[in-house]
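Retro notes (design track)

What went well: tokenization of the new backbones is finally stable.
What didn't: we kept losing track of which sequence belonged to which structure.
Fix going forward: every design gets posted as structure first, then sequence, in one message. First example under the new rule, 47 residues:
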């Protein structure tokens, strides 16, 4: 009898950028969404 391996845990990786202007946010967003399934929240200069 073979036992299946348990599923790998799904984790989160978080980063915070402060004092970020809107054009910089859009550039980071474009670069990362092309390569990952990253989600973003931008609020008053904080990404």
């Amino acid at each position: 009898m073979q036992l299946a391996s348990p599923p790998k845990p799904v984790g989160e990786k978080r980063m915070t950028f402060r004092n970020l202007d809107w054009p910089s946010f859009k550039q980071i967003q474009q670069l990362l969404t092309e390569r990952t399934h990253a989600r973003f929240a931008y609020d008053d200069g904080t990404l």
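Added context from the reviewer: Residues 5 and 11 are 18 Å apart (CA to CA).
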